[in-house]
Amino acid sequence: MQFTPKSATVVRGSYTWGDFVPHPALTEWVSSYWYLSTHGPAVVRTLPDACIDITLRLDGEPAAFVAGPQRLPREWASKEPRMLVGARLMPGAATHLGVEIEALADEWTPLQTFVPAAAVRRLVQDVSRATTIGARIAGLDAFLAERLRNREGDPRLSRSMRAAFSSAGQTTVTALARAAGAHPRTLTRLFEKEIGLGPKRFIRVVRFQAALRALPTCKSLTQVAADMGYFDQAHFIRDVRELFGETPTAIMNGTRTGGPEG
């Protein structure tokens, strides 16, 4: 089950970015690892992607954080250079780390709120002391492998997410419930507990992410809107503006989308 959303864009500033695949044993739980280093003042916009991120801040006093799924784009400004390493967790993975999704804000929350402090200290030490990006990613990968390998998720959630991803979000809550083998109300409670979004919001984000990937190389907004199942072009433009923070035309004309190079 693959889902590789575009989760951020650097609005202003110079930066170095890297995106890394997880260990094969973790592909059900980790969408990707990432690295971001800004070289001075910068503004970063994070985007709704239905995922939960674990982020390690390595500049200043190193620390680890977790943030819940965003409903809307948010911009983060920094006057100083920042060095961040993170894991983009697949929807449903964070509960296996002990994260209480319903209690999680979409802002950074210290990881030790949910994970034993000793384990978080070891993670921060291992990653911050590493001298290469690869070694830092390996430290985060080892931390997650210890906690997520051989875990089993709720099959109803897996089936419904697979249906959402395979349709690029062009589906309904009723169809997801049918794929999951669950009543729509049961599925809604499951999504809210495990993902932090209801299924209706989830499929909206999945469709937005599919559109976001298509926009930089498309030739016609009308065609993309039709391909993605939007009612009309106006609906498509409103959805992208709300979830990305700019119009589809701005994305087509070169706005950076996504990890941040996209």
Features:
9 helices; 262 residues; 2 domains; three-stranded antiparallel β-sheet; alpha+beta; Arc Repressor Mutant, subunit A; Jelly Rolls; 19% strand
Output the strand order for the largest sheet.
2-3-8-5-6-9
- Using only C-alpha atoms, the radius of gyration works out to 18 Å
Q: What would CATH call the class of the largest domain?
A: Mainly Beta
The number of helices is 9
Counted up, domains total: 2
What is the annotated CATH architecture of the largest domain? Sandwich
Any idea what the shape is? globular
CATH topology of the largest domain: Jelly Rolls
Q: Quick check: average pLDDT?
A: 92
**Major pleated sheet:** 6 strands, antiparallel
Q: What pattern of helices and strands is seen along the backbone?
A: EEEEEEEEEHHHHHHHHH
Portion in helices = 25-40%
Molecular structure report:
- With 262 residues, the chain is α+β, with helices and mostly antiparallel strands.
- It folds into two domains: 8-148, Jelly Rolls (Sandwich); 155-252, Homeodomain-like (Arc Repressor Mutant, subunit A).
- Helix content is 38%, strand content 19%.
- The protein has nine helices and nine strands.
- It has helices at residues 117-129, 133-148, 155-166, 173-180, 184-194, 199-214, 221-227, 233-244, 248-252; strands at residues 8-12, 15-20, 30-38, 42-46, 52-57, 63-67, 74-78, 83-89, 109-110.
- A six-stranded antiparallel β-sheet has the order 2-3-8-5-6-9. It has a three-stranded antiparallel β-sheet with strand order 1-4-7, with no helix packed on it.
- Helix 3 packs across helix 4.
- The longest helix has 16 residues, at 133-148.
- It is globular and about 50 Å long.
